[in-house]
Specification:
The chain has 260 residues and is an alpha+beta fold. It folds into 2 domains: 86 residues; 163 residues, no CATH class. Helices cover 44% and strands 18% of the residues. A 4-stranded mixed sheet has the order 5-4-3-8, sandwiched between helices. Strands 1-2 form a two-stranded antiparallel sheet. It holds the Pfam family Plant_tran. This is Nuclease HARBI1.
Length: 260
């Protein structure tokens, strides 16, 4: 849920970033009172309906009387503005304070040094061009676009890698992701912790599936120790599944097939 102040910041940012979204003097010609441009309100209503409810771009004409091409243009400008304004604040690498907070929570849950959970989500692409369908179709049977994300316990998605064709599996996504490339080069948030008298300075991530090259779940654990570890890891790794669920419930556009 977006807070009131964040919503006001979004509205103000969208008004200042776009030349089309400007304020106008009201009908009484009161220069001391300015209200948002009706055009801006119409565009934002159309954008919110698409993002929050998954409405098709041609259905907004029935509500706000703007055509399909204008709706797509408004949504692209809105999303681009959100990234420009809020990207440095939310979609960033954890700083020292963030790492300390994540480590503290991880230690409380039995995973010292963890920085988050990693997983991939497939977003169906309904109107995928015919020439691209083979490239974007994989195990799901229909064209999809892959989102790789690292999520913390508080639903903070601080790493997102989006746009790979659905024909890729998780290991292909990891190999092309800058997350693993940076880890291989030693570029990662510093996380100092000690496990069994061994000191580490780089955090780790929990992952699932046979394709994962990180800390994956133990399949068919035999003894009680491995069973307990597998149970706790599965519970902790569900943070990323929970984040995907909240993302799809708040923004229905990523829950169903993309209609444009």
């Amino acid at each position: 849920m977006v807070g009131y102040r964040d919503f006001e910041k979004e509205m103000e940012s969208c008004g200042t970033q776009s030349n089309e979204n400007h304020q106008e003097i009201d009908a009484c010609d009161d220069k001391d009172y300015r209200h948002p441009s009706p055009k801006r309100n119409k565009c934002l209503i159309a954008v919110f309906r698409i993002l929050a409810y998954g409405a098709s771009v041609d259905s907004t004409d029935e509500y706000v009387r703007i055509d399909e091409s204008t709706t797509i243009l408004c949504m692209k400008k809105f999303c681009r503005t959100i990234v420009e304004v809020f990207g440095d604040e939310y979609l960033r690498t954890p700083n020292a304070n963030d790492v300390a907070r994540l480590q503290k929570k991880g230690e409380e849950r039995g995973f010292l040094g963890i920085l988050g959970s990693l997983d991939c989500m497939h977003w169906a692409w309904k109107n995928c061009p015919t020439a691209w369908m083979g490239q974007y179709s994989g195990c799901h049977g229909s064209p999809t676009i892959i989102l790789e994300a690292v999520t913390s316990y508080d639903l903070w998605i601080w790493h997102a890698y989006f746009g790979l064709p659905g024909s890729n599996n998780d290991i292909n996504v990891l190999q092309s992701s800058n997350l693993v490339a940076n880890l291989a080069q030693g570029i990662a948030p510093l996380a100092h912790y000690t496990i069994q008298d061994t000191k580490y300075n780089v955090g780790y991530y929990l992952a699932d599936g046979k394709w994962s090259s990180l800390v994956q779940i133990i399949f068919q654990p035999q003894d009680r120790k491995k069973q307990y570890f597998a149970m706790m890891q599965e519970a902790y790794w569900k943070d990323v599944e929970r984040a995907f669920g909240v993302l799809q419930s708040r923004f229905a556009i990523v829950k169903g097939p993309a209609c444009f």
